[in-house]
Hints:
single chain
Amino acid sequence: MNYMSQQPRIFHLMQLAHRALFRAADQRLQASLGISAVQQGALFVIGKQEPCKPSSIAKALDMNKSAVTTLLTRLETAGFIQRVADAQDGRAQRISLTAKGKDAIRKSVPLTKQANADLLNGFQPHEVETIERFLTQVISTSARAASLTSPEPSPK
């Protein structure tokens, strides 16, 4: 048996788990609230930091500016958020929830809690701690690796 076949397929399994998890979450949230999991995440961020800047949403969700702009346009078109000019900087925007956005958060919290419970069903508390520690380490290790391999700005 060669070395590669003996190694756990963690990266591949995490990729498959991520896709399956978000596919299920998107289906559940679309059916019940008309939003995707990413849109739900944005609503949660806005709700915690309201009114917030798009850059805060981008940072919290680890998204680039153009993706956040598209996300906010969809949420605004669907009536979940509203954009207003920043009082200090008229070029900047602040994002706030509408009544529909607040209602979507209220209704989605039990869905998220149930999804978490379903994921952890059958695991002992010490196993849940290990899962949390592992995932936190993956995030940290990946963020460090990404920062080390980020392209250098080109000289002008």
